[in-house]
Write a structure and sequence with these properties.
Radius of gyration: 20 Å
CATH architecture: 3-Layer(aba) Sandwich
Low-confidence stretches: none
Structural class: alpha+beta
Number of strands: 4
CATH superfamily: NADH Oxidase
Largest sheet: 4 strands, antiparallel
CATH topology: NADH Oxidase
Shape: globular
Oligomer: single chain
Helix content: 40-55%
Amino acid sequence: MSASDTEQNLEQQRSAAQQDIRDLRQRITHLDNASIELILSKARSHYAWTDAPISEQQIRTLYDIIKMGSTSMNGCPARFVFVTSDEGKAKIAKSLKPANLAKVVGAPLTVIVAYDREFWKELPYLFPHEDRRPMFANNEEYSVDTAYRNSTLQGAYLMIAARAMGFDIGAMSGFSNQVIDDEFFAGTTVRSNFLCNIGVADETALFQRLPRFEFDQACTIV
């Protein structure tokens, strides 16, 4: 393919992408209040679960939503381990603080949200416009910081997407990252960030909602 053909093809792709957004904005201008309540404003973190299962197809659908979320340079550094088996849960259990054991054992799905420290090696596929690998190749601190920050962002997409699909979530940081890394990622460049339980919650374990800062306590407009 000649350079002119390549440029013409890219221009067609850009035009199609721009039209897709125009069509989306005409079709959906905003979420209704009930949807916003479901995913954020009325949603709660959960600690106990019913025995309602999550299928592999639902897990795959969940990922297909998550993967479309924005990341820096489309780097997509997050790696997700969807743990449903007793064997996998037993590995996670080794890392947990005692108070968190029942939360994981009772959940039909526990997701290890992790990140690849060498995510940047995939940039030629994910970000083909320009070779950005030299930014990361000899800068481990920058690579890890970018991977960690953006995997956290992708973990938030996971939580919102799960709620949007009608599931409940309970994110967790009360565990040993080192143990998770040893059990699941030994010999790789992947490291754990946080855990997230997903399922249909048993709401009888909930307590009252805790306070949040008001706008003027947390925000400024400049």
